[in-house]
Amino acid sequence: MSKPLFKSALLSVIVTTLVFISGAGADDIKLPDIGSPADAIISKNDEAQIGRAIMRDIRNSGQVVEDPLVNEYINEIGNRVAAQTNEGDHDFTFFVIEDPRINAFALPGGYIGVHTGLLEATRSEDELAGVLAHEVAHVTQRHIARAIHANSRQSILSTAIMLGALLAGAAGGSSDVIQAGMAVAQGTAAQQQINFTRSNEHEADRVGISALADAGFDPYGMASFFDVMSRQNTRAPDQRVPDFLMTHPVTATRIAEARDRARGYPQIRSDNSISYGIARIRLIVDRFDTAKEAVAYFERRPYQNQNDLERYGRLLAYLRDGSYWKALDIIEYLAGTNPEVIAYHIALGDTQMLLQRHDDALKTFEEALALFPRNVPVVIAYADRLLELDQAEKAHEILLDLLNNVPPTPDQIRLIARAANAAGENAESLYYLSEYRFMIGDLVGGIGYLQQALRLPKLKEIQRIRFEARINFIREFMTEEQLRRMQRRPSSGISARNSQ
To answer: 162, 181 in Cβ contact below 8 A?
Structure first.
């Protein structure tokens, strides 16, 4: 199902001002020292705080893709590349934005975003890994802090205006604030940014290609995608240039240099993983406005002439269309012949649920959980189905085991809160909801849920101690205004059930 485009000005601000401005000279391709003077301008902790603030606004926009299979895949590839260039100084989070435009971007603090349009535009996993390697290099090379340090005093002022606009927009969700800050900042130092961009891009290419090869991907993957995008620029004048070209200027010289760098590494033959195909197919199915359009797309070729990924796309389209029996025939074949593919187990269980074959579905998910313990997509899908069958205690149990071992997303925190509430664990449900509010930046709201939990009758002493300790901890990070808002907050809370 297609959703509205990500219209906030936030992404364009991030891409055009933070990620690709540089303070290095054209020939400066040295790695920044750990004790770089850039730290005096903006520390790594500052970068992390800015990144979290922007990320909260992006999540609140509703355009972050919450598909566990897609999220797990993009983080697997991203972290595989990041491990080759990151010496433990940065924590990375990779996510996908639902937007058909071809683009990717990096935020301060290691947040790397990829548009669905870019993921679909890649022709291979090596090309996708090349884009992620490039964005990772922007973070590890600290191009934001280096830009602020190396620019003139006037440029420092303009960059400060941009950072302030980002923080104000992230805090208030106002694109007008962001655009106003950008108008002033761009008018102050536009030419400096253009000049410095070239240096940053070349450095990100160099470091990224090295990480790409070290991670076991084809080092030509980055140049290959650049070449694809450069050809997009030769289209008819009335056709829009991809955003990737606007934020990552690609020239014939740059493509040639990327290829030259790739020649310096041993040749690597890398095949696309099944997870790459699964992620792309899921996004393709989801982009159609109607189920009928999705079905028509995958029925263009006879079933017998399709490969397994095309058949997987067809069954997903059938599920959207309500053609459950047609979907069952396909998924039983796929799961039977490819038992190592997690997505097929999930699709089989989902199809059985839709056909009211509940016992078969629960068996399918139990077997998948045994084969892939604590796998995020499996656990999330299984918990959802358990909740549908009013087996909330079991859902809460498996989610708690998962989230105690795997860092959760806000969406997953909300799911375990729902499971705990349905299981009658009201205090724990309120605790999870407080953590959800903290994750999206609402410290006052989070403490409100903990205070509501403390007023519950029959609260266990261990829970009281835990909740009070959490409140005291969070208060240390609150501003004076937040503390005043907390004091003014009505004593009556919102029920856990209604808040979800």
So the answer is: yes
DSSP 155-213: HHHHHHHHHHHHHHHHHH--HHHHHHHHHHHHHHHHHHHHHHHHHHHHHHHHHHHHHHH
**What is the distance, to the nearest Å, from the Cα of residue 160 to the centroid of all Cα atoms in its chain?**
26
Work out the number of other CB atoms within 10 angstroms of the CB of residue 235. 11
Q: Which amino acid type is present at position 117?
A: G
Q: Which residues contact 36 (CB under 8 A, 6 or more apart)?
A: 142, 145, 146, 149
pLDDT at position 41 is 57
Phi, psi torsion values for 107, nearest 5 degrees: -110, 160
* Element holding 75 (H helix, E strand): helix 68-82
Instruction: Round to whole Å and give the CA distance between 412 and 392.
Output: 15
| Burial class of residue 66, CB neighbours in 10 A (0-12, 13-18, 19+) | middle
> Which residues are within 8 A (CB) of 341 and not within 5 positions of it... i.e. 6 or more apart?
274, 278, 334, 335
Backbone angles phi, psi at 374, to 5 degrees: 60, 25
Supply 486's token pair. 């907390």
Amino acid identity of residue 491, one-letter, is S
Element (H, E) at 112: strand 111-115
Half-sphere exposure of 435 (CA within 13 A, CB side): 20
Question: In sequence order, which residues have a C-beta less than 8 Å from that of residue 194 and are 6 or more positions away?
Answer: none
Please tell me the predicted confidence (pLDDT) of residue 240.
55
| Pairing, β 93-97 against β 111-115 | parallel
**Domain chopping of the chain, boundaries:** 10-263, 390-500
Q: Compute the average pLDDT of residues 409-413.
A: 93
DSSP reduced 3-state for 381? helix
Active site residues: 135, 205
Helix (H, G, I), strand (E, B) or coil at 375: coil
- At 328-351, the pLDDT tens digits run 999 999 999 999 999 999 999 999
Helix, coil or strand: residue 215 = coil
Distance of CA 156 to the CA centre of its chain: 30
Burial-class residue 464 by CB neighbours within 10 Å (0-12, 13-18, 19+).
middle
pLDDT number for residue 25: 30
Structure tokens at 434: 């407080």
Pairwise CA distance, residues 251 & 272, whole Å: 27
Q: How far apart are CA 129 and CA 222, in angstroms?
A: 8
Select from 1.10.1660, 3.40.50, 1.25.40, 1.10.287 the CATH code of 390-500.
1.25.40
CB count within 10 Å of CB 481 equals: 9
**Average pLDDT over all residues of the chain:** 80
pLDDT of residue 12: 39
Residue type, 268: I
The encoded tokens of residue 179 equal: 């655009």
